[in-house]
Amino acid sequence: MHIGSPCQIGQIVFITHGREAGQYAVVVGIVDERFVLLADGSRRKFDVPKRKNVQHIQVFDYISAEVQNSIIETGRVTNGKLRYALTKFVNENVTDSKKGEPIYGEGRCN
């Protein structure tokens, strides 16, 4: 895991700052060296990605080949594929989450 490292499309990240802190997301676009576009397929859809500063995310050394290939080939990806990639990553790599617990964090209740 590297913080602030250059991101690639299809890479899984953990959001550390902001309203969506504590949630996992997939990089669906790269704006420039400072900003990326994130989506999770559930709360944050592919059509309306979140523009996020790379200093506010934790980047994992894991790239979803399905998501990456879909975006490269067609220019888009289904929200179901994003949800599948995140669920697969969390089930395989995150050991402290309980079975059946939502992977999208607590969210805010204002």
Task: Explain what you see.
- This protein is α+β, with helices and mostly antiparallel strands.
- The chain contains two helices and six strands.
- The protein has a six-stranded antiparallel β-sheet with strand order 1-6-2-3-4-5, sandwiched between helices.
- Strand 3 (24-30) and strand 4 (35-39) form a beta hairpin.
- The longest helix has 15 residues, at 79-93.
- The protein is globular and about 30 Å long.
- The termini are far apart.
Number of DSSP-assigned strands: 6
Specify the structural class: alpha+beta
| Whole-angstrom Rg | 13 Å
Shape: globular
Strand order of the largest sheet: 1-6-2-3-4-5
> How widely separated are the two ends?
32 Å
Runs in which pLDDT lies below 50 for 5 or more consecutive residues are none
What is the helix content?
Answer: 10-25%
Beta-strand residue fraction: 25-35%
Q: Please outline the major beta sheet.
A: 6 strands, antiparallel
Order of helices and strands: EEEEEEHH
Average pLDDT level: 85
- Helices, by number, come to 2
Oligomerization state of this entry? single chain
Brief account:
This protein is α+β, with helices and mostly antiparallel strands. Helix content is 23%, strand content 27%. A hairpin with an 8-residue loop joins strand 2 and strand 3.
